């Protein structure tokens, strides 16, 4: 194998595939990157941790086709990143080492046979192929992924549900203390549900961000039996789907409320941020929310002192006093783009629901924290 390419193009491609590399594996070859050069002047880079595989294809000048696995991917990625912005020549020497050359630099790397790299797998039993606006998909991931559980023992709720219904795409995530639901209109006639690990979704979001300067506005999602593939310019992401039945989130969402508040989101964020400075010193990041007439009072206290904040709002229904983990409320508020929001309450021991003033584009459910008696 022998080819030459632009340093910046190769470095960017390596950064993309590196998202699928893990050092915590019992399969040594998976710590590496598979390079395949073909006679049509293409170089395909492949990395996999078996749950997530990423293929990136770039234009190069191929003098001799072939495949090889770079054993130490971290060293190789760091090396290419730090080379000068010029053409790089890469070839496999007679002893199967990799030789990297520029006008001023020459480096040799250990390699492995490409035959040892596992087949990242084509999709079996393809059920559907869908097209999404890549910015819309990235935004929906941003609005939900932080609510998925990070505890691997929790099973299916470490994933994000993607639910296709007639002319709509819904995504939902929850961790037992809070839940995020976001909805977008899209042309669709199918009903499908898939669950993808929130960790994988986070990597997909990074790839979509890196592809923001590419001309294609849409990405394709191909659904197989146990895997799905995301396709965008020169990049193929193959991900293992989580198996099991996701919690019926629609049954969890409250159907009515006794107190409804309309409030400026930024004012609420700023007040909670100040109150949570002391909340972090106490238990559960606890803040106390008191709703009385047209004022919302947010307070927190610890051995270090106390904070009280008043915000003007619109209220219908009953007065209320309720406690929350400030982080859970803040995470939801920071994911919302609207200036004004609506918060629905039922009682001090039932979850609140954060919604837009109109429609149902998003809903954030947050469980309360019991306020300790003085």
Describe this protein's structure.
The protein has 374 residues and is an alpha+beta fold. It folds into 3 domains: 2-116, DNA Polymerase III, subunit A, domain 2 (DNA Polymerase III, Chain A, domain 2, Roll), CATH 3.10.150; 128-250, Roll (DNA Polymerase III, Chain A, domain 2); 255-366, Roll (DNA Polymerase III, Chain A, domain 2). Helix content is 20%, strand content 42%. A 9-stranded antiparallel β-sheet has the order 10-6-2-3-4-18-17-16-11. Strands 15-12-13-14-27-26-25-19-23 form a 9-stranded antiparallel β-sheet. Strands 5-1-7-8-9 form a 5-stranded antiparallel β-sheet. The longest helix has 15 residues, at 265-279. The protein is elongated and about 80 Å long. The relative contact order is 0.11.
Question: Could you give the topology of this structure?
Answer:
Elements: E1 2-6, H1 7-17, E2 33-38, E3 42-48, E4 52-59, E5 61-64, E6 66-70, H2 73-82, E7 87-92, E8 98-101, E9 106-109, E10 111-112, E11 128-133, H3 134-144, E12 159-165, E13 168-174, E14 178-185, E15 192-197, H4 198-210, E16 218-223, E17 227-232, E18 235-240, H5 249-252, E19 259-264, H6 265-279, E20 286-292, E21 295-302, E22 305-312, E23 314-317, E24 320-325, H7 326-334, E25 340-345, E26 352-356, E27 362-366
Antiparallel strand pairs: 1-5, 1-7, 2-3, 2-6, 3-4, 4-18, 6-10, 7-8, 8-9, 11-16, 12-13, 12-15, 13-14, 14-27, 16-17, 17-18, 19-23, 19-25, 20-21, 20-24, 21-22, 25-26, 26-27
Helix pairs in contact: 3-4, 6-7
């Amino acid at each position: 194998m022998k080819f030459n390419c632009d340093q910046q193009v190769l470095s960017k491609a390596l950064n993309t595939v590196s998202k699928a590399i893990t050092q915590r594996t019992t399969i040594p070859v998976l710590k590496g990157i598979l390079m395949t050069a073909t006679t049509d002047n293409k170089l395909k880079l492949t990395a996999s941790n078996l749950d997530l595989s990423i293929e990136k294809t770039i234009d190069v000048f191929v003098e001799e086709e072939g495949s090889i696995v770079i054993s130490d991917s971290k060293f190789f990625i760091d090396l290419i990143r730090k080379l000068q912005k010029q053409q790089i020549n890469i070839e496999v020497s007679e002893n199967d080492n990799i030789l990297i050359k520029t006008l001023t630099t020459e480096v040799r790397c250990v390699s492995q046979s490409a035959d040892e790299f596992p087949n990242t797998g084509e999709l079996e039993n393809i059920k559907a192929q869908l097209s999404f606006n890549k910015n819309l998909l990235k935004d929906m991931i941003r609005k939900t992924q932080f609510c998925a559980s990070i505890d691997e023992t929790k099973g299916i709720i470490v994933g994000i549900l993607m639910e296709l219904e007639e002319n709509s795409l819904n995504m939902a995530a929850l961790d037992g203390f809070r839940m995020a639901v976001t909805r977008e209109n899209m042309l669709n006639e199918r009903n499908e549900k898939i669950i993808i690990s929130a960790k994988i979704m986070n990597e997909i979001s990074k790839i979509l961000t890196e592809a923001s300067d590419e001309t294609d506005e849409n990405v394709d999602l191909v659904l197989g039996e146990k895997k799905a593939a995301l396709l965008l310019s020169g990049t193929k992401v193959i991900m293992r789907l989580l198996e099991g039945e996701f919690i019926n989130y629609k049954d969890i969402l409250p159907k009515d409320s006794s107190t409804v508040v309309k409030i400026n989101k930024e004012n609420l964020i700023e007040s909670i941020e100040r109150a949570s400075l002391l909340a972090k010193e106490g238990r559960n990041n606890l803040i106390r929310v008191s709703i009385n007439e047209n004022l919302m009072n947010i307070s927190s206290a610890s051995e270090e002192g106390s904070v009280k904040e008043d915000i003007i709002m619109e209220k219908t229904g009953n007065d209320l006093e309720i406690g929350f983990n400030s982080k859970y409320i803040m995470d939801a508020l920071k994911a919302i783009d609207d200036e004004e929001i609506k918060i629905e309450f039922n009682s001090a021991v039932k979850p609140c629901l954060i919604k837009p003033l109109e429609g149902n584009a998003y809903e954030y459910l947050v469980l309360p924290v019991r306020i300790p008696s003085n």
